[in-house]
Structure formats: C-alpha cells, structure tokens
Fold each of these.
Amino acid sequence: EDWLYMDDLISQQTEKRKRAISTAIALTNSGLQAYDGREVMGVFLRPETYASFLKPPNMHPWQTTQVDLNTVLAASTNNNNNDDETAQDSCDEPQNVSVDYQIFCAEKDQTKMEYTWGSYTNGVGLYSREKLMDIGRMYGEPEDVFNSRYVEPNYAFRALQKYCHAAIQLDDNCQDIGKHCTAAFYHIGGGRGTIPMKADGSKCAGFFWVFYGTPWFEQQLKMMEMSGEPLCTESELMEWKGIEAIEKDSAEYRQETARMNKEIRQKEQQKRQEMIVQGEV
C-alpha cells in the first residue's frame, strides 16, 4: 500500500517500462555474474541511490544484453497448465529484447563496508527463489536468540555476502540512475509503527547483530569481549524480548501506532495525488 505502481497516470509508459517485470525475470534467469564471480540474485524495480556510496568495481558500468521474453511466457504457460495451442505457439519463437542493466555488489571486505543495504525485506524487487532459499530465513522469531530490531540489515548483509543484484533502465536516454530511471514502482510511504516505545535493549542492542548467522558474528563477540565492552547474555536478551512483546501488546502502544499509521496513510494519499497531477502535466 505504500508502493505506487508507476502506470501511465504517473510516468511515461516507455516500452521498457511496460515489460519491466518480464524483463527482470528473464535477466535474473540469464545467469549474470559480477566481477568477482558472485551471481546476480535479482533485479530491483525501485529508484536507486547506490551511486552515492558504491564505487567500482562494486558498481559496474551500464551494460547491454539480449534476453528472450518468451522464456518467461513459456514458464508461466506451463505453470498454469494452459493447453491452449495458440498460447503455446507464441512461446516457440524467440522474442529477444535489448536490456540496459547495471550490477551492484556490496564490499566484501568487512573493514571497508560502510552500509548494509538492499530491497530484500522492504521495497520492490524480483528475486530468484533458489537463491533466496540459499540465503535462508530471516531471524527474529520469538525463540531466536536474536535482537529483532536488526532483522532487515542482517538479512541484507547475508544476501550481499553471497550475491549481487541488478537494476534496469526503464526510461529512454537514461545515463545516470535518476528518480524514475530504474523504477517501475515508487515509494510514497513513511513506514509503519513497529518499534516498541520504551524497551531500548541496553547492551542487547548493537551493530554486531547484523553479522548474526555468519562466521563474522563470533569474531565480533570476541572483539567486544577483548575490548571490555559488556556482552548481552542469552537470558538478558530473552528477558528484553519479553518486555518488548508486552509493550507491543499494550493498549498505549496500539493507540500510538494507530495514530502514527493514520498520519502516514494520509501523507501517502497526498503524495499519490501529487504524482498523478504531475503525470497529467
């Protein structure tokens, strides 16, 4: 509800934008690899800002390739058990289209990595199911010995260690990643109320949770221990998670969350209308 599809009310419907999802699927299935051999796990379909902090070789130059969109149509036809001969015949002949794309990778050297980023948990993207399963689940279930405030950066970190992603040009004559250049969808929301009001986590909060589930997690804990920084024990974390759960279930929290979400939805509606007016102009 807080992502707006950029249809013809919002943005010019170039041929590239009309086939954005099919192109993204075909490109993801084409076996692209980054400079260091990491595979491309999917395509982001939202405005990109990675040029502001990524540098070559982690930010590739724009490249062009050919993909066959009928491979996507054929897969869809087979999955739907469609026996229509006309539909099947339309998949027999290749429908090759040219795609301009750019690959983005994270810095794997932990001493140089400044951000954990990616639309893997919030945003619009299309990914290989096989690669998502390889990364594994998100941590943050009640029984996990894990601080749930770090669910998204932790998942992004684990994804970025194994894979890269691509963006595709959807506007004509697009040289740099701009506001709409790579976007089939646009974020008009401001998030939803999900953070407890009082539980601060004390020493159970920290960036080290980003590394949870990876070999670097134990290294981070050892470094903290050597520096004399207080560590959060399992019992302390589970106690904090209990406080967090109680706060989320309180009437005060629900009322505050409802108030904030109402304001956010009003702003989203206003932003949606503004973009429609701009599209008409």
Amino acid sequence: LTATSLQSKQRNQPPHKTDLSNTFIKMYKLAVIAALVASASAFAPSTQITRSTAIGQHIGSGGMADTRNPDTIQHEDPRKSISAAPSFEEYLKQRAGEGTTAAAPAAAAPAAAAPAAAAPAVGGGVASTLSGLQGAGHVWGADGIAVGKEESDIRGHDSFSKFTDACAAAGIDLDAAAYTIFAPTDSCLESYEKMRGPVTADVLKMHIVEGKIASSDIPSATLNSLNGPVTYRYAVRKHFVNDAIIGETTFGAGDDFPIDVEVGNSVIHTVGLCFGFY
C-alpha cells in the first residue's frame, strides 16, 4: 500500500474510545460551568435605573426622602389652601373616634366609670377654680429627641385661662346657674383657632351644659348646652361628648384630664377637644 492510501484508510476508521471519553468530559464540564453561571446571575442584584418624580425633596442619609409639614397657605381658591396640621395629640384624639357615628348604639352604653378618688370640692367660682386647676400633662413626643428627652417625658401641664378669659370677654357668667362645664384646655382652643378661626361666644356656650351632671351620669343625661344640645356616644370603650373624650388619660406619667371637680352647684369636666370642631 502506498502512503496516500494508508492515510485515507486511517481517516475512514471510527474514532478511538479514548477520544470519545475526552469529548464527553469536556461537554460535561461546559454544562456544569454554564449552570453555575446561571445560578449566580439569579442572585445578583439587578441594575435598574429609576427616575425620581419628586420635586424639591431632601434625600436623607438613609436614602429616603424626608417628609415635611407644608407651610400654611390661605389662597383665594379654597381648594389650594393648606390649613395648619393638628398636633400629634390632637391627631390621636381624633383617630380614637374614627369609624363611629353620632347615633346612639343599639345596646345601652355602660355607665361611665367613676374616678378612683372623687375630685375635691373647690371654693370660689368656676372661673377662679379653673385658673388654679392643673390640666393634663403634655409629653415631648418627637420634639424631645433633639433635646435629650424621651418621647413620653412630661413637657408641661395645660391650663384653662383661654376659656375663662374668652367667657369673660363674651359676657358669659359661669356662675349664673347650676352648670356642667366641659372646660377645654388652652392647647385645644389654640388648635381650633388655627384650623377654624376665632372662638366665638356660640362655641363657648357649647361647653356649658345646663344642670350639674356627674361623669357617671353623662350617658343617661340630657345634655342641653347654652347653644343647643350636644351629643353623647360610647365607642371604643370610651365616653364622648361632641367627640371629646370624657375622663381622658394622658401619655406618659402625667396626670389625667380632671373630671368631677365640684364648684358649688356646678361641676367641671376638662376636655382636650373643642366642641366646635364637629
């Protein structure tokens, strides 16, 4: 045989078994590598470009946009006006009454729980009693963090001078008869002025109910104020008059809202929400 015929014969012969094994091993390795690459890609973070549509927002150190209270704006178009936002405590008080209606419940509401110790009778008139009455304690809330305070620490106590001064200016005599005075705190009247405007005589008269009514008798009593009826309702295990909680407890270690403060033929229950809101 010539050399040319020999090479032609070798080319026509089937491949050796060793060559087949080597080829299979290479293909297997390639398949394993491809599977590992695919698995790693599945867990790799996707690089996605996002565009922010926020205008004028400050991005904090955590990468989130800060939310800030907008400034109060009085616009000729009421839809473009921005009223002052309620305080944190006012928000919680309003939220406590959400999901309820002014209508009385089908079942009779339980009687209001009497305070652990009855408030002592105070000498003098209603106005002088309120001037010396210490209201509920106010907590620092989120503002306390910047000055090294806990959110539940007491910042101060409320008073009732705005109510008594406004009644005197409007010529309303708080000692003219036997009354139940739902005395609003200074802070809640300030919130009303910011959100609704001046506290008028009609609003003040809503807080003065005819007759002396103890807190435990409020659910069954007729509540006629000097400016018409006010509404009682029982909801979320609390007693409300015109959406103000009667016998409200405070946040932190401060005193609760005083109730059943007797002044002669009258009685005072302090409230943290102006009746004129609703």
